[in-house]
Amino acid sequence: MRKLAALAALLTVPLIACSANTTGTATTGTTSASPGKDSTAVGFIFVGPKDDFGYNQAAYQGSQEVAKAYPNLEVITAENVPEDDNAARVMNSMIAKGAKIIFATSYGHLDAALKVAAEHPDVAVVQQGNLITTAVPKNAGTFFGTVYEPVYLAGIAAGKATKSGKLGYVYAFPITQTIDNINAFELGAQSVNPAAQTFAVSTSSWCDPAKQAEAAANLLKQGVDVITQHQDCTATVIKATEAAGAFTVGYHADASAIAPKGWLTGSQWNWGPLYTDIVKTALGGGFTGSKYNDNFRVGYRTGENPFVQSPYGPLVDAETKAAIEKARDLLKTSSPFAGPVTDQEGKVRIPAGTVPDYTTIEKIDYFVAGVVGTLPKS
């Protein structure tokens, strides 16, 4: 198991009582909190709104699981926090309100999170999604789940459902998470439909409905009949796909309600248990020697996966479900990227018989054979 960057030697945090929720405004972003009688709290920042049918909704739901698990602990949340210096200002405002544990939940919040951690050595600052390879403050770290595993399973559903052999993938930026997911989706589809191709289109935004609608329309014009995505807000692409009579594979959250006919399945986050365990670790006296003291990843191979596969739609048949169940069992000891894996140019990147570790997978910077699209040259 790959474990993440140093999240060491911290605090013993006392629990406190708190009363009913109130709302307020942070430096940037909308913040809500339960006012406590003392100065201990846990803060969560989200890059988008908490009701986006996607990434931020899943993270917000996880924060509320922490509130349920620790009803006497003040939980502060901030929505629409940009991935720039404003994120540091929002986190600092939470610390001023007593936060001793901060969750920075977006990929682009890393630099701000590390800056805040360096300025506040008594505060645990955990960032969601990055792999840190350089020295960082001992009170900082990152975590994530190997979500490309259920994305691979969803690719099986897509490969079985497509009639055209053309799958679509609307993604934001060519970061390791999106590259891994696109590749895993195509590899899953290939495992049951070797001729399947995945057409990848970037919007260069985590949530821009206009760009999402344009990307979906262009994919549909090309004959794509199954569309999935790696966007923070997912409703626009799903609604456009459903309106066109095509199939949808979801991501981040269960959005089957807005695609009652074309929904196949999806990958959704279940952050509550992991968030709660991180808080428990901090409240217990610190992170030294804990599993969060290094590069931390969880998935099917670790048995601690912070995600679930979304419910099946009405058109997913028994044969497809059986294929997915069989593949899920294999992923407990293997990987979507078990070799041989070949890139778009035909070069073998992962040899036959090799099961790459989590760190290797997060450094993938190429599209696999079968993906149609290009990545920017570094």
UniProtKB/TrEMBL annotation:
Q: Where is the ABC transporter substrate-binding protein PnrA-like domain?
A: 41-291
Q: Does the keyword Signal apply?
A: yes
GO cellular component annotations of the record: plasma membrane
Q: Which PANTHER family match?
A: ABC TRANSPORTER SUBSTRATE-BINDING PROTEIN
According to the record, the signal peptide region is 1-19
- Protein's name according to its UniProt entry: BMP family ABC transporter substrate-binding protein
Q: Which UniProt keywords apply?
A: Signal
What InterPro entries would the database entry show? ABC-Purine-Binding, Peripla_BP_I, PnrA-like
